[in-house]
Amino acid sequence: MKSVVSGLCALMLTAGVAAAAEDDPFAWLEEVDSPRAMAWVEAQNARARERLEGDPRYQTYLSEARAIFAAEDRIPIPRLRAGGVDNLWQDAERPHGVWRHASLASYRKASPQWRTLLDLDALAEAEGRNWFFHGATCLKPAQTRCLIALSDGGGDAVEFREFDAAEARFVDGGFRFAEGKQDVAWLDADTLIVGREWTPGEVTTSGYPYVLKTVRRDGTATEVFRGDPTDVSASAIVLRAEGGAVDGIIAARGLTFFESEFSLLTDAGPLKLPLPRRAAYQAYVDGRAVFTLQEPHEDFAAGALVGLPIGDFRRAPKAAKLELIFQPSERQAITETAETKGSLVVSILDEVKGAVDVWRRQDGRWAARRLPLPADASVALVSGSGKDETLFLITEGFLSPDALWLADAGAAAAQTVKTLPARFDPDGLEVQQFSATSTDGTRIPYFVVAKKGLKLDGSTPTLLYGYGGFEIAQTPAYRPELGKIWLERGGAYVLANIRGGGEFGPTWHQAALREKRQRAFDDFAAVAKDLIARKITSPRRLGIYGRSNGGVLTSVSMTQNPQLFNAVVIESPLIDMLRYHRLPAGASWIGEYGDPEVSEDRAFIAAYSAYQKLAPDADYPEPYITTNTRDDRVHPGHARKFAARLEALGKPYVYFENTFGGHANATDPELNAQRWARHYVYLTQKLMD
Asked: Which end of the chain is more exposed for a tag (fewer CB within 10 A), N or C?
């Protein structure tokens, strides 16, 4: 009887959501390329251009941003491959980019000798496609035979083509997979394991593959794993030993965005690994598959880094035990891992400050040595080598330009090889870390970047940034366009480490998950109020910025606390949270936000969903809403409908939509420069004028 009632409730809710869509007068804006929707976009863009690009400061800001994004002296980001370094280089003359290669010795010089592998601009022109490079997967150990991912317009959907990097050409008659959201990995020179849409409609409700097949060069495809259409996705993890041999294949079945089942594929069928549902794969080192645990499991606390000996598990699945590698403290978090030859490299945060440890097994135990890197800096793992202990890292801070380090993980040694020239003048600026008290008493840390000896009278134009989702930590970063266009002109910048992020591990994230989402909004408001109480700024001079999940944050902040802000930048946002799961790829985030089809979930989502919360009698700050037509991760309908509803209510707003670039909005250096110039013109108008 209970199941019948539940089914009836689900049916009623489904009908209710469908009816809600029919009742929505702006649902037609969800039709991405419809003539009516695109005519609306063109009209909005014309208004925004007149307002923002017509401002006399726009050309100055554009020139400054263009000099940053197309600079010839920026660090060419390295990817270790085939004993040397790959790089994708984009500039004003080559906006699509050149994929190129240099020896490691040459790369370390001021002017490396590059060999062009693939000219994306030439390819795009020859084929009449808007091609952007989305990476290469190369067969170890030689790493000369690759699968190139090409995105038409910068979205997540890609086409894969086989490429001979030694000959710098596509392979005639080689592997090729048409555009889609898909994953491929090499098993051997003639075999791949692929997750994709094999037949029309064979994808999950989130739009991702759930069927894995091995594909041979002769075209033979054999199914090896099948998930369920209600999953988020399924993908393959190839466990490759140091010499290049395949030790096993793990099928990762994404049940929700944060819950997974991992199974070792065997001739007898999949064998589930002894892991909790909240676990994430990290690396394969010394015969161990390494995972982080996002929840307590057996004797391990949440956040633990553990290893599973795959050989032991294959021989005796029930007897194999997880090994503890590292257990972060309450104020620490693991942010990234990388594998080198025999070493596990782990990047951590400690009070939102970065460090890197190198772990190796010695005498049957895991032991760590810390790399000698700058204190009080953020650290990003750029590229590791499976052939040796070589590793590239980048360190940066709010006022410290990116520094590229070449590390020897085995020796726990590191040295700088390249440094980004300063893009703005840091003299007279300082970084301070404060904390605000949220509604439930939790201490919320935040950073302030501003002039030294700031006059505490509330007059400083201040930009507050937050994210608060998906266990993604927000750390000090060198943002040249921010420094040049905003900080040099007297503005202040604030980074809020609100709950929902990963600054303090999985518990910090889970504290604002689903029905607890309001905590993230309360944390953000608490930081804003603390800034005002300290008289660093005032509501007249305070603006907020967020993108993607941060668009949920800024749109809700605008509707819940309009009195706190005078500027709101909402970029590539989720906003209509009662329909987000119906818009690609929204269903994959039900684990983060909840399911609007379930009455209990719908109630707590409806309590904050900004699209529905817009009120005719409210006095809102004028927002700047911006998105991308070709965003296939967060549907542009969210931004469009929010702007349209504001217009219908007679509320001021500015709306602009780029026509390509995908969710990142940063595929083309010139368009990226224009994007930031518009952002800062708006912020200047609202907070500095």
From this structure: N
Residues 6+ apart with CB under 8 A from 683: 461, 463, 486, 491, 543, 567, 569
Catalytic residue among 96, 297, 663, 679: 663
Question: Catalytic site residue 663?
Answer: yes
Same domain, 519 and 628: yes
pLDDT in tens, 96-141: 999 999 999 999 999 999 999 999 999 999 999 999 999 999 999 9
Residue of 151, 548, 572, 588 marked catalytic? 548
Same domain, 397 and 460: no
**Whole-number Å distance between alpha carbons of 235 and 233:** 7
Q: Are residues 148 and 49 in the same domain?
A: no
Active site residue 263: no
320: how many CB neighbours lie within 10 A of its CB?
17
DSSP 140-182: TTT--EEEEEEEESS-S-EEEEEEETTTTEEPTT--EEEEES-
Q: What pTM does this model have?
A: 0.92
Report if residue 636 sits inside a domain: yes
Helical H runs in 491-598?
A: 506-510, 518-533, 549-560, 590-593
CA distance readout (Å), 395 to 136, 284, 353, 382, 388: 24, 25, 11, 10, 22
* Three-state secondary-structure class, residue 212: strand
In 3D, which of 297, 231, 225 has the Cα closest to residue 260? 231
